[in-house]
Specification:
Layout: E1 2-4, E2 9-14, E3 19-24, E4 32-36, E5 42-48, E6 51-56, E7 63-68, E8 76-80, E9 113-118, E10 121-125, E11 144-149, E12 152-157
Antiparallel strand pairs: 1-2, 2-3, 3-4, 5-6, 6-7, 7-8, 9-10, 11-12
Amino acid sequence: ISVDYQDGKLYWCDARTDKIERIDLETGEDREVVLSSNNMDMFSVSVFEEFIYWSDRTHANGSIKRGSKDNATDSVPLRTGIGVQLKDIKVFNRDRQKGTNVCAVDNGGCQQLCLYRGNGQRACACAHGMLAEDGASCREYAGYLLYSERTILKSVHL
């Protein structure tokens, strides 16, 4: 699901029907099929300015495509070979980002990692060591054990 704030439309894709559709965001009327294809496996859609972007898990071993909001059949692949596990895509639009992030200034006072928690709150963390008592700096460490769990790297302070 994606909201087109510029035109006041709600877009969605249906993996079962292989369609991208839109509807008027305010009235819930004017339902339109933007793209329909039997040879795509669409799973996610996102809108930015004049284009729609969607994931296609069948094309070129997983791809992200872009097409015009008015005629998405003119689509072009932006990335291919991503893999068939491709699930979701989102567009970052700087104009839609409001508010402030305490981590943006002086790393939020954290020595290593600043994790924004919303509502002006943050939490500090350390890449490998342990967080010191002051909650912002990291303790020194003599070593750490690095290991993986399938696709995730983890560490243990020694």
